[in-house]
Amino acid sequence: MILRNIYKFVILLFISVYFILSDQNCGKKERSTLYWNQRYETLPREELEQLQLERLKMTIERSFYSVPHYRSVMQEAGMGPEDINCLEDLQKLPFTTKEDLRNNYPYGMFAVPLSEIVRIHSSSGTTGKPTVVGYTRNDINNWAELMARALVSGGAKKNDIIHNAYGYGLFTGGLGIHYGAERLGASVIPISGGNTKRQIMIMCDYGSTVLTCTPSYALYISEMVEEMGLDPKKDLKLRCGVLGAEPWSENMRLEIEKRLDISAVDIYGISEVIGPGVAVECSCKKGLHVMEDHFIVEVIDPDTGEIIPEGEEGELVFTSLTKEGLPILRYRTRDIASVDYEPCPCGRTHIRMSRVSGRTDDMLVIRGVNVFPSQIESVLLEVGYTEPHYLLVVDREDNLDILTVWVELSSKSFASDEVRKLEELGAKIRGEIEAALGLSVKVKLVEPKTIERSEGKAKRVIDNRKL
Ligand code: DLL
Known about the structure:
36% of the residues lie in helices and 23% in strands. The protein is of the alpha/beta class. Among the domains are: 135-356, Rossmann fold, CATH 3.40.50; 364-466, ANL, C-terminal domain (GMP Synthetase, Chain A, domain 3, 2-Layer Sandwich), CATH 3.30.300. α3 packs across α4 (68-76) and α9 (215-227) runs parallel beside α11. The longest helix is centred in the first third of the chain and has 29 residues, at 2-30. The radius of gyration is 25 Å and the shape is globular. The model is unreliable at 16-31 (pLDDT under 50).
């Protein structure tokens, strides 16, 4: 009898241990440190496209029946929700522009009554009325999910301390990252922008491990760290950065990584589409995975509206697939990038977009040549001896456009009386920029710390032709 009971106990013990161990394995598989949501981030393309089609049909139906603007533009185009039977049918829909959102300011594009909207943000546009975006509880939930994915993709983990220096407020950066960090289960410091010395003290004392802010602010932080006599390797615990909200070059990434001793990934987003978390780089740093189970991306020729082949640059256009508050159909972002369908070594099946090289409306056309600020940033970082803080000033003299590039000297490179060396450096920078742009420019070397630092998005251009 006793023997039989011992026998039963041992068998039960084996069964329990088996289930406990297998449960742990399962947990590990689902929440590997590579992905936040392995199932959706690695969905086979066929399943992903099926999911996109189902969600697209729902979004178009919701938009048609609940948003008068969408109903009228679809009717004008002679179509209705029943005409969407495959993903290519999306191309039958007219584009949506910022102007459409402005014409329906503030709430006219919402697909639900205000009583269902739990959060309102607005775009950071500097001209005209801002665009207003609204989120239902489900939208906030989905957004937090996307942001948790994005943070994990950038290397963040549950036990990280996330120093969130994106601005909190109407800008989507602060709260967008914040909810994602909480969803991940990390400890988030809602520091917002500004008071950089205090930020650095907090980073040192609280042991921040992940930095989230714009690349230009990360660079400014690195400068201030140096000025305060701190060594990022010894005094900071930062390990990675999830940086975005403005265009930045590969050279700028390398500079930030070196100065702060971190690994930095690029995160893309736009308020009208959701905010941060539309696309993010993985550790391969070869393009940003678009969260394709929530958005469809197209690349178009900005002049003709025609779809552009894979790999070629054009304007990004997004359609939301799950948003309830503000569904957005074929939204023209004015951002210039290309897309790549090649599978990524990280295992994610979502397509990758290239880093955004600039905006169609930021692109300067100088004497017929298209110039993006990031091209100049890249040259400056290659030449060295200067800080990657720069300003492009465009004037018109005798009907001729003149581009002057203000370049800030690095405090370590020269004493200001070494005139000959400065002249040589100015000539070298001018030569390199002219070779990169195919355009003659003027270069003005300015003293260290002359160019205004940004705590959010950097202002790189003063176009006096428009004034
Ligand atoms: O900038 C959302 C965001 C917050 C993204 C935090 C990333 C991190 P908006 O204020 O609506 O939204 O500005 C959107 O910023 O159309 C691009 O021109 C630019 N932008 C955003 N991310 C990137 C990026 C937020 N990674 C506009 N690279 C977009 C280049 C970017 N440009």
